[in-house]
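Quick check before the chapter quiz. The format below is the same one you will see on the exam, so make sure you can read both the input and the output lines.
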Amino acid sequence: MSCSNCYNGCTQIVSDQCIKYTGVDIPVLGIKTGDSLSYVEQAITEFLVSTLDGTGIKLTIDQNIICQLVSSNLPTCGDLTALDLFNALIKSVCSLQAQIISVSENVSGLVTAIDEINAPYAIPSCLEGLDSTSTTHEVLQNMITSFCGFVASIGDTYVKIADLDTLIAQYLQGQQTSDKYYTKMVPYVAMEFYPIPGILNNFDNTGAGISGTIWEKIYLCNGLNGTPDKRGVVAVGVTDGTMLGNPMNPLVNPTSPGNPTYTYNAGIVGTNTVQLSRNEMPSHTHAATATLTDPGHSHTYQQDGVGTTTSGQDTSGLRSFFNVNTSSSTTGITVSVTNAPDGGNAPHSNYQPGIGCYYIMYIP
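Here is the expected output.
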């Protein structure tokens, strides 16, 4: 029969199975004194193999020194072996390499972006203390400071939409306590004014509202005190090109024949009456009156001259005729044609229906 771990009476010459290990116990390898040499060899071989592939090296590592990246690649249960650690380190290194490659590929873009950020700025006038040489940090710091100042002033400068109606009502209510009419008027706007008798006594002889009265800072638009002279004229938008916008309509464009040029406050254009020239009159005819004057006339007729001649000879039995002219006479009728002139050469009115009023203006 075969022999295993036998030391006496062994009939099979197998040295490692018949030799007893007499050395000290090696717990880490599972070897004890008295084990056969084959067992010790097997234990040592298995240990060496596990050492070579890392599965037999058990590690105990302080978790405080392992970074999150390596820890995320370690197994979450069982003993930690050298192989586990090597695999975790390799995976971590590869992950870092991929990140480095990604960052490297974007370096040129980052450099370009940084160059753009550091390019000279066009500094607006609202940012004080800066110029085109200011750095990005200086510009950002100035903007932060300005923005913080703006935020701090919002409460005093702006109101919430929800509070707007209430504040307007309060403002209007507060304005009612003032007896000065100019507080309710828009500056430099000529307004129609139909006063009751006696109100004009509150204006001096230049048309200025008397100081201290409710008409203070209000002026009649009579051409004095910086007001336009609105007496007898209507306002028309200027056509001298200073009022910019769309191309001017040909009906009012002064480049079109017959259209005047209106310049701001440059004087009156137009007139109340117009006298037509001959060219402006419509084409027409006149009825003619005829007068006839008769120059006079006469008639000729034949006379029967039986048996008589002009010489007195007897011509009995013969008939003859001769012409006899009557005397000339007139009827007293004359005919003449005249085309008498007409018209009184007077101008016609050139104004539309209107109603007189005063114009007043508030001038601060």
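If your answer matched, good. The first strand starts at residue 58 and ends at 59.
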